[in-house]
Specification:
Serine Threonine Protein Phosphatase 5, Tetratricopeptide repeat; globular
Amino acid sequence: MDELGLRLSAVFEAMSSENHQRAAELLEELLAEMEAEGPREDLGALQVRRYLIIAYERLGRHAEAEELAAPNLAGYRRLLGPEDPDTLRAQEDLALAYAGTGRHDEAVALLSETAGAWRVLMGADYCDTLACQYTLARVLWETGRRDQSAALQEQTLAACQRALGPDDGLTRQVAEMVAAMRDDPG
């Protein structure tokens, strides 16, 4: 394993143990070293930034996540194209950052676009398509668009049960959201 892989291993270990602050510190240090001679837009730097965006989101540091997410998405688009799975994941990162900073309409629009791109690229029952739909439904719910959210959650739950099975982690998350939605219809 190369040095980047070893350092990212430590980041993943911190994230898996819910130590997002430590993960953010490791990623900030790594990114600073990578960009000591100026900004980089190679795949390694884009991935490090993406993990840092995720750590910031989990820490509630939404403004910092958004500041990184927009240029990171632009880099993925330039390097890999608009329909690459990594580009679509970076697009979801930006949408979540938008939601975290109160830019809900932009978040919903970007998540809708991303879910549609996943459906075209990988199919309606692909795990990333379903995960994106779940995220979209969650943002819709959080912004008071309960009817839209409820319909999408029910559709996503049925697809998860069919495609992933009842014991899959995403299926369980969606089922919990649907149950919560039914308990609190707004």
